[in-house]
Amino acid sequence: MMMTEKEIKARYKMAVFGFLWIFLNPLVQMLVLGFIFQFFIPIKTANYFEFLFPGLLAWNFFSYTVTKNTPMYINERALIQKAKFPRETIVLSVVLSNLFHFLMALVVFVLFEWLINSKIHWWHWCLLPGIAFWLAILTSGLSLLFSSLNVKWRDINFGVQALMPLWFYATPVIYSLDLLPSWLARWIYLNPLTAIIGILRWAIMGTEVPWFSLLISGISTIVIFETGVMVFRKESPFFDDWV
Amino acid sequence: MKQNNLAVKLVNISKIYQLHHEKPTLVENIFRKNSREKFVAIDNINLEIEKGEKVGIIGPNGSGKTTLLKLISGIATPNQGKVQTWGKLVSLIDLSAGFHPELTGIENVYQNAMLLGMNRKETGNKLKEIADFADIGGFFDAPMYTYSDGMKLRLGFSVAIAAEPDVLILDEGVAVGDENFQKKSSDKIEEFFRQKKTIIVVSHWLEYIKRNCKRIIWMSEGKILEEGGLSLTKKYEDEFSK
Predict the structure, then answer these.
(1) What total of structural domains would you count in chain B?
(2) Which of A166, B17, B77, B81 could form a disulfide with B13 if both were Cys (CB 3.0 to 4.6 A apart)?
(3) Cβ-defined contact of A83 to B115 (cutoff 8 Å)
């Protein structure tokens, strides 16, 4: 927990706007992406900006966290070599501090929706913490997996950097699935983020989400998390040998 | 039970490192099938250290002293054998590890104390004691990047001793800071020596070991070559002054 506090404080210590940045960052990103895809590539989705924002928030949380965490044990080698402490704290503190930012921005967006959207479902909002938790589990699992492997094989980091842009386009953040031909959409459902972002939009804006995608995503999240924890458990006692 | 008297117990421990001459990568791992070079850092060591013992570990560079300390403190894990320790163990190896330059001294104290196994409340109670001992004045609530190296070390040392270890592990360079602080820190360590704390020292500074330790362990090539009382340092000196 204290490591999380350190992450948050260290990140915003010097920033004049402080917490404003948490919201401003995805907002600017949304405007840019929204502008490009609205005018240059015709995507037929009502309220495109509104559609874009929750997906971007979730994607940013996921990709920032996993990308930052992958080389984390190498970057923190001074600590690994000198002190004994539960190794998972390093990775989990990054997950938690980014989760905090994600939730902050989400709350602001939900309030915004409450003001402009009249047909929202209050009880859907009760599920938001659960959805955030689901996303955090997936992110933690991958973070633990990649960061542990990167200690042993340093090219994992490059692999993750190459993977993330591909993953972005394989996730329905900037497009919606009904725009794709059905053979392609079927593959996109295998991506655990598809259902998470789907149900996030459903919870905030009441868009539909296919139930079977939730099942696929739920199972793959558990598998990824279990794998991550297993690899971490096996490798973490020997981090000092490799860093 | 005899074990209640023990602070550290090592049973048949070995530590083998893989030598890699470049950064290890997955690609290389798949395409190159030749067996890796191995380096045996610790070769089947058995050791028991009782509570309150002052142990000095001597031996030439590369004899496995630091690896042994890492295994005892739990930073590294042996490939074979079992390490058991009783009581709170603190190693004064690198005092400023874990400090974050953007955070203030106080925030870093909490952070570092947590790594040493203290909770928030304990640290809060000790905060004044730590500040007094480190004696860095108004810098205590300034960001770490404004500190000099000496100030960082002083603060690191102050946190480490505030953790009230049962087993204290000292690596080379026991003395930190300026003349004044060196005096203060060695007084504090002497105080630990006088209390019934277990202390394990690794040093090439034989005078220090002679003055403070009762039991000497002489390591060579990952093994315990000889074990004994203070007379062993004499033999060790003779061996290397030939």
Answers:
(1) 1
(2) B81
(3) yes
B95: closest CA of chain A, how far (Å):
9
- What distance in Å separates residue A80's CA from the closest CA in chain B? 7
Is residue B19 helix, strand or coil? strand
Q: What is the pLDDT at residue A215? A: 92
Minimum-distance CB partner of B103 among A6, A83, A85 = A6
Mind telling me how many Å the CA of A174 is from chain B's nearest CA?
Answer: 33
- Residue A32 tokens, joined: 């840019």
Residue of B nearest to A78 (CA): B97
Asked if residue B145 belongs to a domain, the reply is no
Residue B222, amino acid: G
Residues in chain B: 242
Between B36 and A205, where is the model more confident?
A: A205
**Which tokens hold the place of A202?**
């459903």
Q: Are B159 and B188 in contact (CB under 8 A)?
A: no
Which residue has tokens 């479902």? Answer: A121
User: What is the spatial distance between Cα B58 and Cα A87, in angstroms, rounded to a whole number?
Assistant: 30
Each residue's pLDDT tens digit, B106-152? 888 888 887 777 778 888 888 888 888 888 888 888 888 888 878 88
Q: Are the beta carbons of B103 and A6 closer than 8 angstroms?
A: yes
C-alpha separations of A198 from A170, A202, A212, B114 in Å: 13, 6, 12, 39
Structural domain includes residue B95: no
Please indicate, yes or no, if residue B189 is contained in any of the structural domains.
Answer: no
> Residue B122 domain-assigned?
no
Query: Inter-chain contact B116–A83, Cβ cutoff 8 Å?
Result: yes
CATH number at residue B82: 3.40.50.300
What are φ and ψ of residue A15, in 5° steps? Answer: -75, 125
Please give the interface size between A and B, counted as residue pairs whose CB atoms are below 8 Å apart: 75
pLDDT of res. A228: 95
A241/B111 CB distance under 8 A:
no
**Closest Cα partner for B110 from B101, B102, B98, B92?**
B98
pTM listed for this prediction: 0.81
Question: Which residues of A are less than 8 Å from B17 in CB distance?
Answer: 241
Comparing CB atoms, the residue among B26, B93, B107 nearest residue A156 is: B26
Residues of A with CB under 8 A from a CB of B: 2-3, 6, 9-10, 13-14, 78-85, 149, 152-156, 159, 237-238, 240-242
Best of A6, A89, A233 to substitute, by most chain B Cβ atoms within 10 angstroms, is: A6
Domain that holds residue B72: 1-30+39-87+168-174+198-242
Exposure of A82 in the CB half-sphere (CA atoms within 13 A) = 19
Q: What is the ipTM of this complex?
A: 0.75
- The answer to whether B40 contacts chain A (CB < 8 Å) is no
- Whether A17 shows a pLDDT value over 60: the answer reads no
Q: Which amino acid is at B165?
A: P
